[in-house]
Design goal:
Order of helices and strands: HEEEHHEHEHEHEEEHEEEHH
Largest sheet: 10 strands, mixed
Number of strands: 12
Distance between the termini: 49 Å
CATH architecture: 3-Layer(aba) Sandwich
CATH superfamily: Alpha/Beta hydrolase fold, catalytic domain
């Protein structure tokens, strides 16, 4: 109980810091039944550009996500625009059975996509979605309920909410790239209760999530390969599971960070003694964005 209390205090302090970190960009305003909603937008140098919408984690601001995780820099390198929507109270109604609210975030994110296109910022044929932690769970919900909007998706330290997956019927196949740590204390790799106490709803295991999406895309069994260094000095190993033989030609890839925690791999190593360690062997944002840049819509 004492360890849980300390972890909660430290997480609150981190969330306060993250909420106060500024980021520069245009403001996108969307009117919704839940009130006025906003997103940070950093356009590309040309109009009608490929665009990635990035969903922050719970209690982590869109500003912090834009500034510190590397999405903006790598997106610019590939000629992408970026958008960082703000969840109400820095949270998403991602569909977990213990995390439900009356907020219609599916409609809000549809509105963000629609507005990006109507303003000429984004190419409607090249819209991509990435989510971190709760934002990743929201990404899976969007794949289940609004897959028609996106041609690629990524999720970092997130798995399918069990109550969402039970009724998931995607409208079309979308290629997906996932990063999950096997030592994640918040989003358990093998599935189960989310959060330090396990009371924030339930998720499937990371591999069950990837396999479900792969089956929906018409993919066969996965292949496995080790990624990066396997020297004895590395306490973390990385395995890549690829479901690539797909009738839809839309594959699914899961990077299993063996020994990795609840971190944005390649960019964070916050409080590794209770969130689990990060690693510099691979950049989750960089890997996902490179894959998006190589995708054909």
């Amino acid at each position: 109980m004492r360890q849980l209390f300390r972890a909660t205090i430290l997480w609150a302090l981190l969330a306060q810091f993250c909420a106060q970190t500024p980021a520069r960009g245009e403001e996108l305003h969307i009117n919704t039944p839940d009130g006025a909603r906003t997103a940070i937008v950093l356009p590309a140098q040309r109009a009608r550009a490929p665009t990635v919408i990035v969903l922050h984690g719970a209690l982590i601001s869109a500003e912090y996500t834009a500034r510190w995780y590397g999405f903006v820099e790598v997106a610019r390198r590939y000629g992408f625009a970026t958008a960082f929507p703000r969840g109400i109270s820095m949270q998403w109604n991602d569909g977990r059975d213990a995390w439900m609210s009356g907020i219609d975030d599916v409609a809000f994110l549809r509105g963000v996509a629609r507005e990006l296109v109507s303003r000429g910022i984004s190419d409607p044929a090249r819209l991509y979605l990435i989510g971190i932690s709760s934002g990743g769970m929201m990404t899976f919900r969007m794949l289940c309920e609004a897959s028609d909007l996106f041609v690629g998706a990524g999720a970092i330290i997130a798995s399918m909410p069990a109550s969402v997956g039970a009724n998931c019927r995607p409208k079309r196949a979308v290629p997906v790239i996932m990063f999950n740590g096997t030592a994640d204390p918040l989003v358990p790799y093998r599935g189960g209760g989310v959060g330090f106490g396990g009371w924030q709803g339930n998720v499937w295991s990371a591999e069950s999530t990837a396999a479900f999406l792969a089956r929906g895309n018409g993919c066969g069994p996965p292949s496995k390969a080790l990624v990066g260094s396997s020297s004895a000095t590395n306490t973390i190993r990385i395995a890549r599971l690829d479901w690539l033989r797909c009738s839809s030609e839309r594959g699914v890839t899961l990077y299993r960070i063996e020994g990795g925690g609840h971190q944005v791999f390649g960019h964070t190593n916050f409080f590794p003694w209770f969130l689990g360690p990060g690693t510099r062997q691979v950049s989750a944002p960089g890997t996902i964005m490179a894959a998006f840049a190589g995708m054909q819509p």
